[in-house]
Design a protein that fits this description.
The chain contains nine helices and four strands. The protein has 318 residues and is mainly alpha-helical. The strands form two sheets. Strands 1-2 form a two-stranded antiparallel ribbon. Strands 3-4 form a two-stranded antiparallel ribbon.
Length: 318
């Protein structure tokens, strides 16, 4: 499929309206694998904070109740992002902020690589021959690629969530794996797969689709030239903000369901969680962890896309 440049409203040349035209699938896989690993290590502490905030229960959004299954004994302990981070370090040491690193890297690197391999061909199939993809086509392509990827990699998310949510002990992947298999069988690793697929559809539609659109428009309107660091950083920030706003409720439900896998179930499923959380804790409970999610998303997108673009450019030029 060949794309040509076109004139924008200001009379300048518009770069091709795609993320990386006709790039090698193996290059995309490698670049996204490395980019995801770097971004995950840099932002995991914020992700741990997000999980702790999401699994603690409140009544009417104010009064504490016993902590969620698997999160350890005691009532609500955390008041916000900075409070959570400081309390984790004081009670568990700095290593507490990196709980779940192994499954997080396994999940993010494999899932992101698969999504990036799928995104470009899906987008190009949706785009008629010889035309530029629309914003909607980019969103749908990004969402579809992410949904397929996470449906396959859901077990790694279950492992990561339970390791991060544990306050009473440092759980290993093997411990969580045995507990889930013993109590629920292999299918237990697909706990929360429904909201997780929905969340990842929204996240990837927002991240891949919005990033692809934003970096093109920034160049088209001469804000930042195509291929520059400023272009990639700005587009990453826009993608991270859009992703957080659209995906947080699904993320809260996904975290609650995954955290109860292999333990006593507080919720019967997605619909039960979706109706009971706002009824028992207030609508704001569906946006628990919004600040750390936003911080992490903007940081993650920036580190990931900048790393990805630089590595892919070098690989494609080789």
């Amino acid at each position: 499929q060949t794309h040509h440049t076109s004139s924008n409203p200001r009379g300048t040349t518009t770069p091709p309206n795609t993320m990386a035209l006709e790039t090698s699938a193996s290059n995309r896989f490698y670049a996204s694998f490395v980019g995801a690993g770097v971004a995950e290590v840099c932002t995991l502490p914020v992700d741990v904070v997000k999980v702790r905030l999401q699994v603690q229960h409140t009544v009417g959004g104010t009064q504490p109740t016993p902590a969620a299954a698997g999160a350890g004994p005691g009532p609500v302990r955390y008041g916000g992002m900075l409070d959570t981070m400081s309390k984790i370090v004081r009670s568990e040491g700095p290593g507490g902020l990196f709980k779940g690193l192994s499954p997080a890297l396994l999940r993010q690197c494999s899932y992101s690589s698969l999504a990036f391999v799928l995104f470009e061909p899906i987008r190009n199939v949706m785009c008629p021959q010889g035309t530029h993809p629309t914003f909607l086509q980019r969103l749908l392509a990004g969402g579809t690629a992410g949904a397929v990827g996470i449906a396959i990699m859901n077990p790694t998310e279950v492992l990561k969530t339970q390791m991060q949510a544990s306050r009473s002990e440092a759980l290993s992947m093997a411990t969580v794996f045995r507990r889930v298999v013993k109590n629920e069988g292999i299918l237990g690793f697909w706990a929360g797969v429904g909201p997780n697929v929905a969340r990842c559809f929204l996240v990837n539609a927002a991240e891949l689709g919005t990033y692809d659109q934003a970096k093109h428009k920034l160049a088209e309107y001469n804000v930042f030239a195509a291929g520059t660091l400023a272009n990639h950083v700005t587009a990453s920030g826009i993608a991270g903000l859009f992703s957080t706003c659209t995906s947080t409720p699904a993320d809260v439900i996904k975290t609650r369901l995954m955290n109860q896998a292999g333990t006593t179930h507080a919720y019967r499923g997605v619909v039960d969680a979706l109706t009971r959380i706002p009824r028992e804790e207030g609508v704001a409970a569906l946006y628990k962890g919004f600040t750390p999610i936003l911080v992490r998303k903007v940081m993650w997108c920036t580190v990931f896309f900048v790393t990805y673009e630089r590595i892919l450019a070098r690989l494609e030029a080789a």
